[in-house]
Amino acid sequence: MTAFALHTDTHHPPHRTPLRSSDQRERFYELLPELVASDPRVVALLADIGAGYVDLPPGIADRVVNVGIREQLLVSTAGGLALTGMRPLVHTFAPFLVERPYEQLKLDLGHQDVGAVLVSAGGSYDMPTAGETHFGSRDVALLDTLDGWTVHVPGHADEAETLIRHALPGDDRVYVRLAGTLNAAPLGSGPGMSVLRRGSRGTVVAVGPTADRTLTAVDGLDVTVLYAPTVRPFDAATLRETLTEPDVVLVEPYLAGTSTRYVAEALSGIRHRVLGLGVGRAELRRYGTVAEHDAAHGLDVAGVRRSVEQFLLG
Question: Per the structure, how many domains does the chain have?
């Protein structure tokens, strides 16, 4: 394990925002020194990503540790620190935080029954020019195979800040999934769902950064839209309480169908239909742009509109 050292992060263009960035990842880097300084239990663990973008005031440098490009070590270190009573705040890109160290998440955190706050960036294909190595659409589905995880998918930087601040004082396992494409304004920071609009022909659940496009896509359609910045635990109560027709469309910014099981459990005993929109399982083998990937997966406005109309109104 190496001491923290400032250096150039080639995965992110040099940029400094004085205060309160609207970009979720930049907001996290702005907050990180304050979060560490505010609680002697908190130790931030990095794996090179972001190491050149955190300004450290005197007195906390020994609690911001860069382990280098060693993601398994990153999570194992978090597990060890948690056993001593520390509260690890762990950060890197989504595929490096969940997919690569999956065994360490299972054993060093889960099996030892200790907690940490994991904050990812990059999302599903937020950096398409980096290619498949940096694509992370399977993260939430993978965490669903493990026990005891809270999963936040904020759609705005203000929501992300609130959720991270609330997560730090605990001892549980929390995953905060930061994204590059965001909603124009905060819509709620949970833990439950918010009702964005009501209708009678079915329910559309928009997760995190998909809310704005979903609202645009269903404009003029007689459907309820719920907003979920937190997906685990899944807010079954709000879904049931606002249900009209027992037909539900999920719009998720990661692997399609990830939360369909939770809808089925929420509506157990009710004959229902559910459609899960999200990133397809088939690998596209294309770079392109974020907008082009959205369109290819049916997650752009036109794609969401088409799917909702066919499923709920067809």
Answer: 2
